[in-house]
Amino acid sequence: MMYEPVLKFGADTLADFDAMVALEDRLIEDLGHSANVDGHDCGSGETNISIFTSDPSATFSRVRQTLQRERRLQSVTATYRPFDGGQFTVLWPEGSQTEFTVA
Prior knowledge:
Radius of gyration: 13 Å
CATH architecture: 2-Layer Sandwich
Strand content: 25-35%
Shape: globular
Strand order of the largest sheet: 2-3-1-4-5
Distance between the termini: 25 Å
Oligomer: single chain
Order of helices and strands: EHEEHEE
Helix content: 25-40%
Mean pLDDT: 91
Number of domains: 1
CATH class: Alpha Beta
Low-confidence stretches: none
Number of helices: 2
């Protein structure tokens, strides 16, 4: 089964967009063939990076290393859902009870 992890960041400026594109490039390098960084979207005060993987927990473990190195871990909400849709499960921040939506 395939899953779609989504990384969501607050964003309001062109600099935020540029930072997201740079992070997306680093994730492509760091994840290699273990997952597919599918793209991004930006709007309504947020940016999102979508990834496809068969193992969302293992993928987030690798993504987390990149986010820590880039000092972005504290500013992200990381989730996943089955590729064919459904409810998101929050991976980060751990223990979050906040309902996740994509604008």
